[in-house]
Amino acid sequence: MATASRTVNPLHFEDLEPRRFEDLVRQLLYDFRDWRALEATGRSGSDDGFDARGWEVINHQLLEHEDEEDLDQNAVPSYKDRIWLIQCKRERVITPKKLVGYLEDISKDELSNLHGLVFVAACDFSKKSHDEFRKWCVTAGLEEFQLWGKAALEDFLFQPRQDHLLFGYFGISLQIRKRSLKSSLRARLATKRQVIRLIGGVQGRSRNPILLRDAEATQYPYSGEIADVHKRPLWAVYYFLGHYESGIKILIRSHLAYVKDGANEWDAMEKLRTNQHCDDPWAKEVDRDLDAKVRAIWEKVPKENQAFLEVVGLVPYDQILAIDEAGDECCNHPHVYLQCSEESGLFGGGAYAVVRTAHSYSEYEYEAELTNQILYFPQKYRSRG
């Protein structure tokens, strides 16, 4: 059975329209430094190699005033801000040679005034690209320089404070996903506690009868309206066996069996179901003659080899919609309402088979591997009826 991925797939920056990619980079840059201004020069169409230009505040004297009313909003700062160039390339691949080519396109006049450079691309950069970038920037006399590739952009976006950008540009919200996971977990634990209170606990093996019901089965309780009602029931009385890590275990059917050497050899007479519940009004009528014949054969099996083949169904807590502990006039056992699918029916977690030894003084349970099934009983009793 396929499992849902627990991770987020790689972000496709290259699928963003070029202007949108520039906008995303510029918004990520707001937290990079304390900017006096950050201009989207690339949107003008004649950017002289600039996609964005920023003026970094290097004198924070104005920020130290406690009373903002004392500030002269029209005063011209007497210090010089640091100028940064931001270049954005929405390309799948940029080779070291191509990277250096982009850098060489920066005019000498602009370069002479720059303090720093941020080069951003929608691809991953090789070690050689990083080395060539560093070498060029040092030679050009830049004091600071940053090369951001796809991995760096993802790191920024996956930080909680950037969740609004992750959602705005890619429709993904880790915070919403986290809240959704928390809500799902709370609902699952609430259902588990309800099962423990109304049906049975997590310790030991129980055999409490319950009615499993497809919540959308409007035919209830009239099973005569349903085709193949016993092969694919929309409701039925089963024995609750206990809990597993994600839900509850249900005894679907049980058959008289033979076992040897820890289930390295086993066989079962599946023609007869032995877990028929006495007050199940929808149960298939028992063939008394068949019951007597099969049990007579099984009684001749050596005591140490007598066993039961049990088919156990799994019902995830998430599949349980509600539990009615009072039942009704048709079935007074607890009713467990389930959300069912066409594929899995009542048992959304699937099913498995075990061979359990018959005598409590030496009871063991083994997985019923089909490759270990031998021909021990008469063939006419081995297949389900």
What does this structure look like?
The chain is of the alpha+beta class and 385 residues long. It folds into two domains: 13-172, Trna Endonuclease, Chain: A, domain 1 (3-Layer(aba) Sandwich); 185-382, no CATH class. 25% of the residues lie in helices and 24% in strands. It has helices at residues 18-29, 96-104, 108-112, 127-139, 150-157, 163-170, 174-198, 288-299, 379-382; strands at 35-39, 52-56, 82-89, 116-121, 144-148, 208-214, 235-244, 247-260, 265-268, 306-316, 320-324, 335-338, 351-357, 365-367. The strands form two sheets. Strands 6, 7, 8, 9, 10, 11, 12, 13 and 14 form a nine-stranded mixed sheet that branches.
Roughly what fraction of the amino acids lie in strands? 15-25%
Helical region count? 9
| Structure summary, number of beta strands | 14
Structural class: alpha+beta
- The percent range for helix content is 10-25%
Rg is 35 Å
| Main sheet overview | 9 strands, mixed
Shape: elongated
- Number of structurally distinct domains: 2
| End-to-end C-alpha gap | 28 Å
Low-confidence stretches: 1-5, 44-49, 62-78
List the secondary-structure elements in sequence, H or E. HEEEHHEHEHHHEEEEHEEEEEH
Q: Estimate the mean pLDDT confidence.
A: 86
